[in-house]
């Protein structure tokens, strides 16, 4: 489905630039930021969040938690302070909860609301209103919640939580941390044990952070690679200090740019290295990338490291479908890097890419082809064949309200023969505020005009 650019749409062009150099830090992790706000809103006492991503998506979650009765304030020093309502203590919002572009915000919130006995209405932008919600409403209805939405189970949707939620044991039909988290969050205000089985492990920020707030969350890894997560309901969560690591999904853009712009050498500091998020970095190393992970440490309970990246020759690889959950948001930028590698890069098992902020599989395939890249889609696989030289470029791409599509094509333009444009720079603010300034500081040449 195509969506018109936002009312504030501003075109941005990117053209071939000199070698990138610099020492940077990218903004905070989006997944961790959403969860920090939600759990802080449920905890007793004060939660202080350092390094919160102040992107549009996360600000929507902050606003929603306020509408649900929590105290959420930004201090002048950039930290965020929450005073929560206690598990089960959220209150009926007086108005619609507008989650903007945020699939994570919307789906996790639906989980929270499922076990609170009042009705709330959720909506979002044209992208979010087109995304499937049945994946969360199906298990949450089994717990007792009621959902009234548009056809196909889409937003706007009224969620009526139940006063008497029942715990469920649910096996995820798709590898989705959002679905897992929605069920666990509903399970917080549910007596008894809520269990989620995931055939392939997905990002575990919910489990790690809930435990840190004081919940009893048990995780069992099975011999067949599946994982079983069990939450004991109605814990008392206690406010805490959270340090949000830099987002590895955002770091992917300057890292990719440094790998393809000739002569580049950059350092990206403090990047989250949760092993369920780092599939891209594994893949890039298999492609021969000069990528050093150094200064590995633990900050605020999450592993982080500094990344040193140098441009050099890359070769095509086959990315196994099992790796998809650990790099699901990174396929758009990987497909750009693959366009500069020698030979075929086959990205297997990308069905989930079709239901992100846009149909990323089609948008990347079509956009890359328009830019002169040899690319094809076979079923759910994306295959990019690079020649080891710069593709032509020279296109203005409609990003369809998708931040990662926008950033990916701007990175492509940084090393292609002709400038590449995007129709809506403002979309990038959902996950990476300050992207243009940061990239320009490294050497990127972005401007409002073509050429
Ligand atoms: C997220 C999970 C992923 C990812 C999204 C953030 C999360 O979505 O694409 O950007 O924070 O749980 P799915 O759960 O749909 O795979």
From TrEMBL:
Active site positions: 329 (proton acceptor)
Primary site of residence: cytoplasm
Positions annotated to bind 3-phosphoshikimate: 30-31, 35, 176, 178, 329, 356
Top-rank EC class of the record's enzyme: transferase
Pathway linked to the protein: Metabolic intermediate biosynthesis; chorismate biosynthesis; chorismate from D-erythrose 4-phosphate and phosphoenolpyruvate: step 6/7
Gene Ontology MF terms in the entry: 3-phosphoshikimate 1-carboxyvinyltransferase activity
Residues bound to phosphoenolpyruvate: 30, 103, 131, 178, 360, 404
The entry's keywords: Amino-acid biosynthesis, Aromatic amino acid biosynthesis, Cytoplasm, Transferase
Enzyme Commission code(s) on record: 2.5.1.19
Cytoplasm listed as a keyword: yes
GO cellular component: cytoplasm
Top-level taxon of origin: Bacteria
Entries under NCBIfam families matching the protein: aroA
Quaternary structure and interacting proteins, as annotated: Monomer.
Biological role stated in the UniProt entry: Catalyzes the transfer of the enolpyruvyl moiety of phosphoenolpyruvate (PEP) to the 5-hydroxyl of shikimate-3-phosphate (S3P) to produce enolpyruvyl shikimate-3-phosphate and inorganic phosphate.
Protein name: 3-phosphoshikimate 1-carboxyvinyltransferase
Source organism: Novispirillum itersonii (Aquaspirillum itersonii)
């Amino acid at each position: 489905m195509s969506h018109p650019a936002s009312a504030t749409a501003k075109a941005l062009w990117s053209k071939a630039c000199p070698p990138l150099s610099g020492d940077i830090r990218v903004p905070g992790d989006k997944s961790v930021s959403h969860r920090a706000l939600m759990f802080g809103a449920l905890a007793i006492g004060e939660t202080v969040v350092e390094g919160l991503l102040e992107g549009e998506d996360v600000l929507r979650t902050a606003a929603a938690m306020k509408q649900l009765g929590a105290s959420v304030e930004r201090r002048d020093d950039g930290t965020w302070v929450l005073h929560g309502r206690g598990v089960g203590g959220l209150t009926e919002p007086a108005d619609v909860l507008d989650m903007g572009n945020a699939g994570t915000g919307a789906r996790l919130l639906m989980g929270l609301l499922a076990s609170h006995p009042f009705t709330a209405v959720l909506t979002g932008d044209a992208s979010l209103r087109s995304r499937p919600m049945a994946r969360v409403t199906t298990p949450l209805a089994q717990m007792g919640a009621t959902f009234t939405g548009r056809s196909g189970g889409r937003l706007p949707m009224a969620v009526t939580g139940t006063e008497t939620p029942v715990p469920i044991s649910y096996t995820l039909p798709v590898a989705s941390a959002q679905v897992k988290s929605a069920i666990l969050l509903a399970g917080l205000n549910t007596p008894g044990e809520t269990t989620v089985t995931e055939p392939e492990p997905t990002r575990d920020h919910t489990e790690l952070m809930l435990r840190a707030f004081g919940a009893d969350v048990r995780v069992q890894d099975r011999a067949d690679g599946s994982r079983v997560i069990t939450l004991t309901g109605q814990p008392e969560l206690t406010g805490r200090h959270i340090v949000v690591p830099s987002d590895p999904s955002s770091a992917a853009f300057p890292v990719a740019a440094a790998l393809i712009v000739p002569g580049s050498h950059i350092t990206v500091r403090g990047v989250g290295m949760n092993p369920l998020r780092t599939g891209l970095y594994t893949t890039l190393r298999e492609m021969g990338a000069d990528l050093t992970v150094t200064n590995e440490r633990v900050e605020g309970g999450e592993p982080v490291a500094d990344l040193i990246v140098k441009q050099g020759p890359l070769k095509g690889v086959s990315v196994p479908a099992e790796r998809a959950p650990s790099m699901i948001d990174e396929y758009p930028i990987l497909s750009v890097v693959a366009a500069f590698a020698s030979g075929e890069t086959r990205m297997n098992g990308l069905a989930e890419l079709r239901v992100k902020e846009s149909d990323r599989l089609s948008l990347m395939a079509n956009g890359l082809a328009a830019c002169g890249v040899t690319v094809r889609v076979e079923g759910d696989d994306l295959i990019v064949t690079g020649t080891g030289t710069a593709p032509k470029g020279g296109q203005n791409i409609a990003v369809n309200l998708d931040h990662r599509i926008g950033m990916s094509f701007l990175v492509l333009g940084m090393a292609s023969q002709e400038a590449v444009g995007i129709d809506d720079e403002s979309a990038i603010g959902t996950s990476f505020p300050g992207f243009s300034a940061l990239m320009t500081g490294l050497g990127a040449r972005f401007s409002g005009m073509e050429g």
